[in-house]
Each structure stands twice: as C-alpha cells, then as structure tokens.
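ok posting inputs for the zinc ion job
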Amino acid sequence: MITIRTDYPGGNIRLHRIVGDDVYLEQDIRDTTTWWFYWNFRVDGAEGRKLTFHFTNRGVGEPSGVVAPFGPGVSDDGIHWDFSKRIERISDMEFAYGFRTDEKVKYFSFALPYQLANFEIFWESTLKTSKWLIKRDVLCVSERGRDIPYVVLGNPHAKKVIVLSARNHACESNASYALEGTVNWLINEPNDFIDTHRIIYLPFADLDGVEDGDQGKNRFPHDHNRDYTDVPIYEYVRALYRLLDGEEIDIGIDYHCPWLWGGENDQFYIPRKAEVEQKQIVFSQVLADELKKHDGIQHDPKFDIPANLGWNLSSHPMCANYYVKAGAKFAVGLEFPYFGTFFRDYCPERLRELGANVGRALETYFATL
Ligand SMILES: [Zn+2]
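and the output
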C-alpha cells in the first residue's frame, strides 16, 4: 500500500489520486498569492515498484514546470539531500523512480531542502565546540510558537558586526547550504574578520515557513523580505531591529535562491541595489576573480541584475536594503541557484564551498574599503 506523506518538517504536497503506478499531485501554494513551485513529499510502501509522478499545477511562460532539468532532490531520511541519477525525468511536470526492494521510504523535493534539523547538525558538529562561539540564543518566538535561533561568533569584545541571514523566503533552501559554508569558513580558516568582529548568524528568518513547508515567497499580505518597513508585521523582523539597534554593521548579507531555472537562474548572481550599486559592482568582480582560483561554482558579473531593472526594485523593503539603512558599510543579497548549469553543480558540498569562497571574496573586497 503506497502512501504519500507530508507530516514532517518541510513537507508540502497535495495528492490528487494514485492510479496503479501513476501518482497525480501538485505543490501546495497555501497563502502565496502567486504561482510558485516548492514541493516536498515522502513515499512509503513502494519498495520494488516503479512509480511515475505527474504534477498538475503548471505556471505561466517558460520555464513553468516543477520538475527541474536534473530532476528533483532525493533523500532517504528527509535530512540528507542530493540529486540522483536514478531519477527518470520525463518532462518538466513528470518524473519516474524505480524503488529498490529495500527502499521502504524515499523523500522527493523540488530542490535540496534545509530544515531546522540541518542547522542542528551544523550546530552539534561545528558551532557548539568552536572556540569562536560567543553564544546561541533565541531571537524571538515565531507567530506559530517556534523559538527562532541565532548564533553569535567571533570576538565578544569587537564593536563591529557582520550579519548573515537566510530564508526570508522560506522555500529558498539551497542558500542555507551556502550560508553554512560562509560561517564554517569564518570560524575554521584563518581570515581577517573573526578576531575583529562579532558574526551574527541568523539561519532562519521565516522559520515557520521553513518547518511547515510553506512556499513563503509572496505570502499574504507580504512575505518576510517585504517586511523591513517602519511597521513590520513579523516578529522576526521586529526582533532583528531590536538586536541590531546601535550596532556598527560592517557587512550584511542575505542569502536567497532565484526563480526556477534557465538564464540567470542557472547562475550565481547579485541583484544590485541602488544605494550601494557601485560597491556591489566592485564586489562582484572581486567575487568572480576569487572563484576563478577554485574548482567549484563560478560567477560572471554579466548575470547580475542592475538596480531597478524588472522585478529588482530598490524601493522594496527588503532585508539587504534594511542592512544598508542600518548603516552597513557593505550589504548585498546573493542568489544561489537551485540547480545550476550542469549535473550536480549545486549539490550541498559545492554550495558550502561556494559559501566559503564568498567569505574569501568579502575579505579581499573589504580590505579595499
Ligand atoms: Zn528570495
């Protein structure tokens, strides 16, 4: 008996019907006011069978499907995710999977989820025992009653801070692996920042959305990344204002993922902001030069989005804009693709390495300010 489940952190699907070996389903949009593409479900009891999954809710335009060119992310435990060559991608709305006879449980998702459990693994393995740990604390209690964690690392006497955040859009999970990479680099490799700064690491802005498997993006009446106003509606944003009040911010970075795939969405890029556009142009080239020294994911400034082009309006009350307003010497939002341009490019390990390289580029760039 096959069951399709979502009763775990990050779960999101609406099951329509199972007919033989064909499963019909769609992503659960919930309170998102536009079409979006996040989904994450678990299959139990399909061992030894080959199932075909048909998605029924397509967006508009091209691309507009929910099954990426590399196929979905897969996992055995809902925590460790990767892309798999065993996925048979049929179209941008269908994929098939042949379950091994010992595969009683398998998780599938749009890309590579990153939940609170992933952060706790990072905490246990790396942060908790770091000599640079100053404290782990609760920023605030979320609207749905969760403790939203944050971690402070570095020199407790330092006046200057670096703020690193993610998941202002709940579904943008790949960015979290890159953020882990930056934080890990800061505390485990020699650099100019760790002994002169306090690093404020905020892994989950919209923790409720992350854990409940919401799209988060464009949620009603607005999402977390449109809440950095004078009157924020989310407790996280209010608490962040209190936390950073009076702090001397050198760098503020907010980690994101872009749209589905194709064009700039397959590239690691910067949507530039008007107030800091010149600085971002310089940083972008430093970043490209740094990445060339390494074997991993590259960056080409030509894919950056100029300020106020298309959707990239600097007037939006976004997190990265707030860091600028709060006095950050340098602030940026970074867009980490869900998939990339070739198979396995944006797997968790490569994303972590990219995050470390972002740190290295920041070090080079910041020395010039
Ligand atoms: Zn985003």
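notes: The pocket of zinc ion is lined by residues 169, 172, 225, 256 (CB under 6 Å). Residues 3-109 form a domain with the Immunoglobulin-like fold (CATH 2.60.40.3120).
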